[in-house]
Structures are given as structure tokens and as C-alpha cells.
Amino acid sequence: MIKIKALNESADSSDEDVTQTLLLSELRFCRFVFTCSEAFYQKLRFSTLKNLGLITNDLNYYLDALELDATDVSLWLKTGRLAARCLDHRLARECFEAAHSLSPFNWIAIDRLIDTTFVLHDIYHCFQLCCSAIDRDQTYAKALVLFNECLGLQPPLSKDMDEKYRQFVGEYETEDYDRIMAEMRQLKAKRKQHFDDERQRQDSKRSKLSLILDANLKNLTFVSIGLKLKNIYEKIKKNNLFPSTPIEMSFDSSSTSSQTDSGGNESGSANTSADESTSTVAANPEQQQKDKDLKDKETSSAGEAEVTNESNANNNNSKKLKRSQSLRNKLNDGLSDFCRFGLLAPITPEAIAEQMNAYRCINLCEKTESDLINAFLERIKAIKSHQNVIKIDDLINAYLCELGSAKNLIIPAIFHDLYAIHRLTNELPCGPLTVIGRDIELDQIWMCLTANELKFNRNETLFLTQMLVPLELMLTKDQFNEFSVRLAMLRGTKETDNDFLNHAIDILCDNEIEVMAANKVVIKYAGIKSIIESQSRENMSQMMAEHNFDQLIKILMSKPESELTSDEIVLLNDAIVSSELWQKGIDIFCTRNELNSECLNTIIKCVETGKRGRLKHPLAVKLVKLAAEGHSVLPWICLYWGLIAEGYVATDAKSQIIKFLRLGHQYLGKRGTCTSHSGQFLLLALTHFIDVDVEDEIFRCFTCLYNFPVRRAVNPTSASSSNVHRSPHISLKWEYCEQLYHYFAPEELPEYDSLVRQTGITQDIEGLLLRILELVPQHLQPNNRTDTITKYIDSGDTIPDDYSKETTHITETIYYLLADYYFKNKEFNKAREFYILDLTLNVNRFDSWAASALTRTFEVDQQLISGENIELSLFELTMTGQRCFQRALLLEPTASKLWIEFGHFVYNISSTALRMRKISLFNPQMELNIECEDSIKISRNCFEIALNADTGEEELWLPYYMLGKVMEKNSKTLGANYLLAAIRYYEWAELCLYVDGTSYPKKIQYYNPPSLAVEALEIHYRIHASVLKYLTLTKKFSTRVLKRLKTHLIRALRSPFSKQSTPSSATSAAPVDHDYATGSRCATGLSRSLSTDSVGELMTDLVDAVSLRDERVDGIRLKDELVLMCLKAMHRCANRYPAHYKSIYRLAHYYHHKNNNIMAKQLLIGQVMQRSQESQSGAGDGHDFNDMVKQIPGLFAERKTNNLFNGIWRIPIDDIDRPGSFAAHMFRSTFLLVRVCTFTDDYQTLCTIAIQLSRTPEIGKKFLRDSDRQILAKLAFDSCHLLLKSHFELSPARDRVIMDVQRIYDRLTKAGVFVAEANAMVKDFLPQYRR
């Protein structure tokens, strides 16, 4: 163990130096040994410094130790005791406070801290410490004595004192008081003696400062003097000189222009060599300019604070106010227990009385700046003559006193700087015990007032207020009035207390005077009145901010109603609403005579919801009178809520509410005010009208509010014009849309295939919904959140399973209703956009997906029908439609109609792609690499699912028909079995048409065909056309296939279409509305039972089929029979429906294939063969095909010079004449015509075809796509050219050929087509002709 001698051995004072040396050496040794442990070193150092302090009584050791560890309470107490013994009470206080903060219940710290604060004359903190000590021990003598002593020295402490301490006032023992106060006085005396000794000691060492002023008093200003005094003070502080350092004042008679800045000559050094520090007033131009700017700034600030008199002085007599008792209480508060000079005046000693009279005679009249400077200099001389030494405090005090008495000068800013310095060393005495002339001079009181007018200090103004009583004895009446007005004005404006301002008004009015305050501020009646009004508003606003509503209402209600300003009325209404004192508010308005809009709005808030306040009879009477005038809806709203509060919402009282609301709407509507105040009354009325479904009133309210339904124009002179309201409409807002939308939107959403007239919205409601859409909040709008849906539709991206968006009752359906409206009105572009918006919010809505698919189907169909060239983008568009179909059918797998539409859509695309492949043989640039096989499979699957699903027995023929077409298309590559399957599907389709009540007329009119007649004809045509194409194109036949085909043809020959019969048990039905989704006509209510005759015919067919099995039939003969049956069927179709261009084309194609181009040409352009003179009645039953062909008008027979296709009509059934199908048939027909003309050497017709097809037709009149038309035109010209060339080479009559060439050339050049080719053709013939 290491032993430290200084810590283990005692030392007396004689060995102090030796001990100190020993301690230091051991400290060094310990530090060396324990260098590796910093914490131990710090602890050791702390102990060493602490013991050194104990031994040497040196504060520095204690303070160094406390820097290392500030948590040692005992060390803080030892340091404080040592500092107190050294008479450094401020340091002692800091030490005791630190100990008290570390140990709040340490009595030593509390006791010593009470002593120290009292000695330092910190009465407030001493009082607080005494109260704290009394709380812990009520018998603590020192705390009780000093507690009462502090109250005696500073009586205002009793105002803020807690009531529990009042029992200790005067509660102490006299012996304790004498003993403790003797100790306190002794401590104060020691401290004072210490300061005096220190001052004398410093006086012997200190150097003197000098204040050098310009001998020319005209050049002196208070600004320059004040700056000089401040510089001297700063030099004293900078050089650590005592404030009592003597200052010698002298005057410099030299030119002031030779002086330099105050930085060089204002003060000298204050070193120990006794060099005097001088201070001069700067007179150079730069300093003068600074002083001038400072003056201007002070003048400006003073001018802003000036209170001017804007009212007539003659009215002052009528506006005199009496001084309020409350102000007297404020001014006299705290003085009741102390000496009042007025009461002591009769017994005042003569010396004091003479001094009072001398002060009372002081002249405070207006003086110039020169007069005040002279007075300042005289005061300084008097001070020097009295005490031989001038100190900085004396100079500053004299400066402040003289300048503080000035009323007609702008006080410079340096005044307040010097006043702050003055207050640091000259605290104000205790007001109630102050004796003017002993504790403070009268001019210092004026100086304090002036300083507070420049910068407010509440403690100082409290002191000035306490001085009013002695000042009233010492000042003249005018002087006292001036002082009182200035003080009241100061406190009233700074403390926002109108009692002081009213007191100032009383003095001004009673004495009919005006008072000038500091900085030339004139205090007048009008100015104070304006301030009072402004501060009243501010006070009331502050009460509102502090939620002191009851007091604010009480103050405002204390005023007469006529004296309330508009702002005060607003404050009263706000206070009632904010306090939620509903019934009290109603009571207040019962006493009011005038009820403006603000009051009525407050009444509404007091009674609304029916659960707050209840109307009283006086107020109800007033409201009824206002309501009868009809100028505002507010009284009606008040009465409405009053009725609700009285229980008129019960079932038996609803009629009364309805009558009241009807009456209110009638009264207000006639005056055009029913929609005022944002339509509040009508919005309330609508709730009840909708509840009981009063339709006429509902529509009238909506019309007045939002102009929906649109207000009709009425003749002002008509009788009905009196019922028309002309109130201005209100702006539709989102919060109002719910009620409006709920009423007018359909209760059930329309389905995608429902009829327009039965469901959905009207054009008027469409406009309303668009208005509502404009108000949808941004966070509810789907416009910027459609990425997921559009990416799925456009590129097939997956839609997440948890996909969902926030919706409301409105946004959940509004987009679908608009989309449905546009969809059923053929505005597909708009419909598509709104369907995407709806799907963004409702991703699983089947109808939106279905309609989205159909809109894309329509777009594809339009492009196919338009005749424009087909681009690859069209097939990309079909993929978007296909995804919509797939998504919809995933949601509703049993939707048979949509399956049929999907199958149609895919089949059309595949057919278009196949046609494009064929056309690409003529123009390789048009070749598109599109897969069709998958589309055919999808189409077949769709129709098969549609047959298996519940179709509702509507249009069952259609999927059979389409399946037949699919099988027929596959038969071209997959064989006869698919052809047989196709015929079976056609037969089932024909049977479905039969049982649906199809009509079979002899002639089918184009513009008014009977129900399903064209469909039946098309199926009959398809059966025979498919067989004819098979027989024509196939080289090898199977007898089995031929027999089966014959069976089907026999069945077709005996079909209802061929025999023109109808089912006996079926009755035809009138056609119903066109179904926009499927484009077909529906027949309902028909029986599907077959008649006995029909069954018999079917049995006959079966017998014939069996007999064919046993017969050995020659294959060639059987084929010919079949061809004959097919040709007759084609003639049957063409004769029964002349517009059926497919039958005519198929016949012409057959004859062309059989090299009978004359017959083919007859069927195409007519008038080729001489018609038979004998007409045959049974065109379809005879065997003379020449006559039968002659009876068929040519397909292009009605052609004109400008239209090759004149007289050719589309088949008016969309399910048969699919989009793009007509253009494809026209291409095949025209192509066949070109070939037939070529084989018949008809180059003139070929020239005509080339010319007509070279012209671009008008939009909407295109029979061919532009690319197809150009191909055919070129083909016709090339064929014409080849024929002419062949004829020229082979014909002996070349002259005739040349003439034909010339004619064709002339026709082409005249038409402006193939001009270059025609020129080349002529050039090709001329050399040969010349040879």
C-alpha cells in the first residue's frame, strides 16, 4: 500500500510551506506510479486538491477540485463558507445553490443560502427560500424572521404569496428577530466595509479619466455627449477600473475640425503610469453625418408613435368620463399597510415640508437643447464642488436627468444605453417605503418615466405607480396631471389594460388638456379612444384564443345591443358556437331585436341535429316573421331544426314536415332565394322528399339546385310561369353528388346485351354523370391507374389475384354506366375508354370485359368492311379483343351468346388471313405470315361450348351453321369426312330454323325479307355449294362418300325450304328488336315439336339411304347426279332470292370450270345467249339449263360506266355476310369475270373493267379493297393486251385488230388510266404492223 504523508499526518500552520512542498512531491510520485490508471489519477488529484484547500484555506484549490468532481456536496458547502468568510458573497451564493441543487433537503445549504441572498439584497429569492424552509419546518426561526422581513422590504410579494403562508405573517419571537437581524446587519456592514476599503485602496492606485468637451457650446449635442460617456464607461469596464474612478472634465477651445474619431482621442490608456485617458466629442463631417442619421432615425420612430387628435376639441366637454374605481384600486393596491404622504402632511417636519415645497416649485417647462446642455454642465459643476470628484455614475445620472426632463426633443438612442448602464449600479428602491429626496430624486423619477416610454419595463412602471401618492404632494397640478397621463398611457398601451387608458381620458377631459410625452408624442383624447377600441378587439380575440368563452359572452352581453359593433357581433357568435352553450345561445338571441345572417347561422348551429338547443316562443315568433318575408333561407332552416327537435320526424308527423318544406320552397322560390346560402334548405328538404318519394318536389329541388333536369323555358306571361323558380343554381360539389347519383342512376346495372330502351341511362343522365366525373377527387380517379388492365389487354401481362382499387358508391358504377351508354349508342371509342376505367376499379366485372371485347370486334369489322388495305396491325388488334373475350368467359363460362360472338370473331380473322394468303399469290408484297389453324380450332371450340351451354333456346341454328362452316373449311385439307360433318351441322341448323318458325316464300324481297328466310336460303346454299366444290375439285371419289352425299342432297331436296312448307305445330312470330350484340333476329314462344309429315319424310330418307347400300352404282353416274342436284339447288336459290350473288357466282364458276365460258359469261354479265322464247314455269325442276341460265340476270348485268358493281347488294344478315366477306366475294366474282372474258376473247369488256377498277371509288362505296381493286385492274389490262397481241399474230385481218388497238388506246388515254402501258402497247404493235 502506498502511503501519502500529507493525507495521513496532521500539519500545523507553522509547517504549512513544508507540508505543501511534501504534498506536491508525493503527488508527482503518485502520478508517475499510476499513469496507467487515469481514473485513479483523477480521484487522487481531487483528494489532494481538497486537502490542500483544507490546509491552506485557499479558494483556488477548492475550485480546482470542484472542476474535477462537481457532485461533492460537502466540498460545495466548505467552498461557500470560505467564500463568505472572504466576503465574496456572490461566489458563496453560487456554491450554496450548487449544494442545494445536489441535496435539496440539506439544511446547511438552505440556511447559508438564506443568509447569502439576504445579504446580497435579493429579497425575492430569499423570500422563496424562506417559504421552502417553512414547508419543511414551521418552527425554523431564521426562515420565519427573514420571511416577515422580506415582506416588509418588498410588500408586493404578498400579492403572489400562497394563502397557506399568510398564517406566518408576524409569527416569530422577538428575541429571535433581534438576534438574527443583528447577525444580518453585521454581515452587511462587513460587506460594505470591505467594499469601502477596497475602493479606497483602488483610489490610491487608479488613474484618472478625462472628459474633454468643445468650448463652443453651440457645437455640443446630447448625442455626442452621450456617445462620449458610453465610451468612457466601456474603457473603464475594459481596463477593469472601478466605477468610482475620478473623471476630470475640461473644455477644448481649439477647432473641432482638427479632432479625429473617437477611436483615437476619445479615451487614453488606463495603465498604472497615470497616463490620462481623454475623451473628446467628434466634430468631423463623418461623425456629424452619423449623428444626423441617428437623429433622423429617432425622429422617424417617434413620429410613428405619435398619437394625434383627429376629433374636434369642442366635443371634449361632452365626452368627459369619470375615473373608474377599479383603477383607483390598482393604483392604491399594496399601499394600505404603509405610510401615505397625504395623511402625514399635517405632521411632516418643517425641513421635509420645505424640501417638498422646493420640489413642487421645480419648473418642468419646455427647454431647448442648449438650455438642457447648460443645465447638465451646471449640475456637473455642483457635483464637483460638493464631493470634489466626478465619477462616471455622476455624469450618466446628470445626463439622464436633464435629457429625461425634455419634452420638445427627440430622445437619442444613446439615452437608453446609458439608462441601462445606470440601472446596473442604481437599483430602484422599494416603492411604498421610498422617500423622495432621500432614496430617489424627483428628476430621477421623471428620467425613469421617460426611459420606460422608450422601452417598457413593467417592474419600473409598478414603482412609478407606487410613487403617485407622494408625487401628488410634491408636484403642481399640471405636473401631476402630466405625469399621471403619461404613466397611465404607458401602462394602458403596454399592458393592454383599458382601465389605465380610461383614467388618462378622465384626466384629459376633466382638465381639458393635452400632454406631450417623450419624443414629442402628443397624447390626445381621440388617439387614446382609438387605442381603447383596438385593444378591446385584441383582448376579446385573446379571450377567444384562450377559450375563455364564458367571460367573453358576459362582457359582450353587458353592452347594449345598439353599441355592439359588427366585429363584436361576430365575436359573440363565435364564442357561442365555440363554447357549445347551445341553449344559452338561444336565450341570448331571444333578447335580441335584430337577427342578421351571422346570428341566424349561429341559431342554426344551436338547434341543428335536433339534439342541441330547443327554440323558445319569442325567438320562434321572430323567425316566423323573417321566414314569411322569404328573403333568406336561414329562418326556414332554423324553424326546420326546431321542428325536428320537437319530434316531427315521427311517422305520424312526416306529413307536417313535408308540408312545411313544400311551403318553404314555394315562398323562397317565388323570390328566387331558395338556393341561397349554398342551397342548404333544399338539401335538407331533399332528404325528406326522397324518403317519402315525392317525385315532383324531388325534381323541382334538383332543378333549382343543379339545373338537372334542365329547367324548361316558360313564357313569362303564361299562367305556369308563377310556378317556375328563377333562383340561381349552385355549383355541384363532390359531397352533393352522392344524393344526386343515388336517385338518378339505375338501381340495377344494365347487362352488356340488354336493350337500350329497357335499361341503362338516357342522354340527359349521361350529361349529369359527366358533370359528376369532373368532381371525383384525385385519389379516387382511375385515369392514372389503368396500367395493369391496359398491359393485360395489349400484351397479355398477368393481372394479380389480389388486384383491387379503392372505390365509392359512385366510382364503383359510374364508369360502367357511361361505357354502357356509349357502347349501345355505337360510340365505341368512348365506350372502350370508359370500360378500361371501370375495369381498373372492378376487374371482375363480366359485362365490362364482354363489352370491351365486342367494341374491338366492331373496330375490326369496320376495318374489314371499309375496303381499306389490311395491315398486320389489324391482326394485332384482334389479339386484344381475344384477351377480352377470354377474360370475360373465364368469369362467366356459361355465357353462350358470348361464346358465339367469340367464335365469330376468331373465325372472321382466320378467314381473312386465308384470303390474304390467296391474294398474296397475285401480289407477293401483301403476304402476311399469320397462323390460321389455331384460330380455326379456337372458333370450333367456342361454338361447341355454346351448344353445350344453356342457350335459352335462342338462335340455336347459328352455332350449328358456324360449325358447319368450320368443318367445311377443314375439309379442304382433311378430307371428305369433314365435309360430311359440315353437311350434318348444316342440316341441324336448317332443322333449328324450321322449328323456330322460318318462312319459305317463293320470292324473297331484299328490303323486307320474312323472318329467317334468308338464313334458311343460305344454309340450303351452303349444303349444295360445299358438295359442288368437292365434286368439282376432287379427282378421286369414294363410292361410299358419294352415296352419303346423295343421301344428304335428297334430304335437302325434301327439306321445308325446297317444298316451301312450315311446321304444323309452329306459329310464326313477329320480329322483335334487333339484338345489337349478335346482329340476329330472335323468335320466341315457338314449339320445337316436329309434325307427323316431317317425321315421315325423314323415314323416307332413311329407306332411300338403305336401298343405296345394296345397289351397285356407277361412280361417274352418281357424281353427275349429284352435280345436277347441286346445280338445280343453285338455280333454286338464285331464282328465289335474285340478290344472292353467291349462287350466281357458284354457277358461273362451275361452267367456267367445265369450259362452258358462254354460260359462265351469261351468268356474269347477261345478254350473251339468246333467251328462250318459251318460258318455263318450274325453273328449278326442268333439265334445260340453258333456259334456266337465261332466266337468271347476270351478276354484273346492271353495271354502269362509272360503277362495275351497280345492282349488286350485300346480304342483309350480319351472321351470313360477315365483315370482309362481301369484298372477298366481289374479288372472286370480278376475277372470274376477267378470266371468262379472256377465254371468250372479249378484250373490249376487259378494257372496260380495267378502266372502271382503276378509278378510286368514294368512301362508303367500295366493293373491293384498294389493293384487290388495283390487282384486278392490272390483270384486266394485261389480259386485254395479251388478247390483242394474240389476235394480231393469228388473225388474218390485222387491220381490224389495229383499229381495235387504237380504240382501246383512245379509251385508256381518255380515261387517264394505264396511259404509259397503253403507249407501250401501241409501240409494240406498230413495228409488227409496218412489217
Automatic annotation (TrEMBL):
Biased composition (Basic and acidic residues) is annotated at: 288-299
Molecular function (GO) terms for this protein are:
nucleosome binding
Q: Where does the protein end up?
A: Nucleus
Q: Which GO terms describe its biological process?
A: chromatin organization
* Single GO cellular component term: nucleus
Keyword list, A-Z: Nucleus
Chain intervals for the UniProt region annotation (Disordered) = 250-325
Ranges of compositional bias, category Low complexity: 250-262, 309-318
UniProt lists compositionally biased (Polar residues) regions at 263-286
Q: This chain belongs to which protein, by name?
A: Calcineurin-binding protein cabin-1
What does the record give as the organism's lineage?
A: Eukaryota, Metazoa, Ecdysozoa, Arthropoda, Chelicerata
